[in-house]
Design brief:
This protein is an alpha+beta fold. The chain has 5 helices and 8 strands. Helix 3 crosses helix 4 and helix 3 packs parallel to helix 5.
Length: about 170
């Protein structure tokens, strides 16, 4: 009987199958099936997409299908690098024994940056960095006082000198 049901099932409207899942029964090619006779599996056919270059990961259970777009976008990558810079600032603050209320100024100088990747992040993510750090990061050439802590940091393949100066 299974081959007959398997052959006839694609012709059954999905509304009827949904009704069976709610506790009814369904007759397929003369064979009556109950809800526990069905195992509905949802899937995503990536090959059916018009835009084949998009990448998706899928996960499913009996009730839902979740698609995650796994394509890497330039803006998201830059935000990720900006978050790494914020992490380096926070680590250096901790190393210096600073408290959140300590008033200091951040300075940096890019020392190694292939393809200007880090410089582009500082330009495109300036607002994000300012919002998260609650202040600007200034270029080292603008520093007017001696730093009380200074350390080279590395993010991906780029390096920068990070320097903290106390505000007067």
């Amino acid at each position: 009987d299974m081959p007959r049901v398997k052959k006839a099932l694609p012709n059954i409207p999905s509304a009827e199958i949904k009704a069976v899942q709610s506790g009814g029964s369904l007759t397929v090619d003369g064979i009556t099936l109950a809800a526990d006779d069905f195992n509905v599996v949802r899937f995503f056919d990536a090959l059916s997409l018009e835009e084949k270059s998009r990448k998706f990961e899928e996960a499913t259970d009996r009730d839902a299908l979740v698609l995650l777009d796994t394509e890497l976008y330039e803006e998201l990558q830059q935000e990720g690098v900006a978050r790494e810079v914020i992490n380096r600032v926070q680590r250096l603050r901790k190393k210096a024994g600073l408290k959140p209320v300590d008033d200091i100024v951040y300075y940096l100088k890019i020392t190694q940056d292939s393809d200007d990747a880090l410089a582009n992040v500082f330009k495109s993510q300036a607002g994000f960095l300012r919002e998260k750090l609650k202040q600007e990061i200034f270029d080292m050439s603008e520093k007017t006082a001696a730093a009380f802590i200074e350390e080279e940091q590395e993010v991906n393949d780029s390096k920068f000198m990070l320097s903290f100066v106390r505000k007067n």
